[in-house]
Write a structure and sequence with these properties.
Length: 249
């Protein structure tokens, strides 16, 4: 998919955006506009970030080296999603790309890789993960890009878990309880979703999770899903009951 909304290209921009501001886009964004899309002087582009919102801008001068931009009017204010952290055991290459994209589209505010006993990927390319999150936000008309945290060991994360954040973790042994009914029993407030590796949590890890007073085991039904599939399923459940899909939010 092209990074555009309708016929107007739409790009994430870390620089400050404001009425009348003039800026030069980074090399990759300039190449995309000028070389790939063949946008020239006077072409319209939409730029956004999580602080300044989304702005309609114009290319004031374009060449092979850079695209120079002038900001016009603000189209939308920044709109962060619900306070949902997404914690996950890293996957390998393309499947991790998919997970980062879909978690972004589903409204995660932060992506937090956690290292578990059965984690299959020993390295996490944070720049690549952030690039996938940015591309998903550009394509899906979002005015927010989730933060990407440094990987941490699961035990360290749990040892410092905040009292006010509910931890919802996908548990194959949670029984066949209706996940919607389980989520409806929870109080509103900061949430985290934890998805384990393909081999599941170890007994020690599961005990550590359940020892938290605000941990909730959630069943995803009778089938064992791949981790990247479960990423979408659990976020859909959480958003529909506790997030911004819920009609009374």
């Amino acid at each position: 998919m092209a990074r555009s909304q309708g016929r107007v290209p739409r790009l994430y921009c870390e620089q400050t955006l404001g009425a009348g501001s003039e800026l030069t886009l980074p090399r990759d964004a300039s190449h995309y506009l000028v070389t790939v899309l063949r946008s020239g002087d006077g072409a319209v582009v939409r730029l956004f970030n999580a602080i300044d919102g989304e702005w309609q801008c114009v290319i004031s001068r374009a060449n092979r080296k850079a695209a120079h931009i002038t900001c016009g009017e603000r189209l939308r204010k920044a709109t962060p999603p619900p306070d949902i952290d997404y914690l996950f055991a890293p996957l390998k290459s393309a499947r991790l790309d998919y997970l980062a994209q879909k978690a972004t589209e589903m409204g995660a505010r932060q992506l937090r890789p956690v290292i578990t006993r059965h984690t299959v990927a020993d390295k996490v390319n944070l720049d690549r993960m952030r690039a996938n999150a940015i591309e998903a936000a550009e394509q899906c008309n979002m005015v927010y890009v989730p933060d990407v945290a440094e990987p941490e060991k699961l035990a360290d994360v749990l040892a410092d878990w905040p009292d006010d954040r509910t931890l919802i973790f996908c548990d194959e042994r949670a029984g066949r309880a209706n996940p919607i009914d389980t989520l409806k029993q929870l109080k509103t407030g900061p949430i985290a979703v934890l998805l384990g590796p393909e081999g599941g949590f170890s007994e020690e890890e599961r005990d550590m999770i359940l020892a938290l007073p605000n941990a909730v085991a959630l069943s995803l039904g009778p089938r064992i899903m791949r981790a990247d599939t479960a990423a979408v399923a659990v976020m859909a459940l959480v958003q529909s009951v506790l997030g911004d899909w819920c009609s009374d939010k």
